[in-house]
Amino acid sequence: MPSFQNSSLTAFDINPDKVYQINRQVPPIADPYIENYFLNETLNLQATTDIDEAFSSRSLLIIAIPTNCNPTLNTFDTSPIEQVLDEVEELGSNPVVVIKSTIPVDYTNRINELHPNLGILFS
Questions:
Q1: Rounded to 5°, angle at Cα 116 from 108 and 118
Q2: What is the pLDDT of residue 1?
Q3: pLDDT tens, 38-82?
Q4: Measured between alpha carbons, how far is residue 42 from residues 4, 6, 50, 79 in Å?
Q5: CA of 96: how far to CAs of 12, 58, 67, 116, 119, in Å?
Q6: Running DSSP on this structure, what letter comes out for residue 102?
Q7: What number of other Cβ atoms are within 10 A of residue 39's Cβ?
Q8: What is the H or E stretch that residue 31 is in?
Q9: Is the pLDDT of residue 6 over 70?
Q10: What's the pTM?
Q11: Beta carbons of 36 and 57 less than 8 angstroms apart
Q12: Cβ pair 27, 21 in contact under 8 A
């Protein structure tokens, strides 16, 4: 497993309250694992609401965005992911992108065709 101990990590969120909490090493969600990590580990983590700061010059980008499911149509709203990918490309950044959201089968293949300059993976 690679070590990110000396790596600088930047989190992007549109919610300024979450950014404020992360920058003060206060977990933005109630989760025992995250709470323990924030309390007991040395983090080189900053958060921002500035999209340029978050996405520029990054070699790895992890997208973890809710994708609303429509159970009647058996579809997912992937537009938030696509918006982020469009913004990353507009900045001229070409990172490896890992999608950590619920997506439909074969979505990664389709989205890679739309964004050939990004290496898009699914986790």
A1: 75
A2: 41
A3: 899 888 888 888 888 887 777 888 888 888 888 888 888 999 899
A4: 11, 10, 24, 35
A5: 16, 9, 20, 11, 5
A6: -
A7: 10
A8: none
A9: no
A10: 0.74
A11: no
A12: yes
Decide if 103 contacts 116 (C-beta within 8 A).
no
Token pair recorded at residue 66: 């809710």
Write the CB contacts of 94 (distance below 8 Å, at least 6 apart in sequence).
Answer: 117, 118, 119
* Residue found by looking up tokens 């009647």 in the block: 72
Q: Which tokens in the block code for residue 93?
A: 């950044």
Task: Let me know: does 14 contact 49? Beta carbons within 8 Å.
Answer: yes
Sequence-separated (6 or more) residues with CB below 8 Å from residue 74? none
Asked whether 44 and 8 are in contact (CB, 8 A), the reply is yes
Is residue 111 a contact partner of residue 85, using CB atoms and an 8 Å limit? yes
Say if CB 79 and CB 85 are below 8 A apart.
no
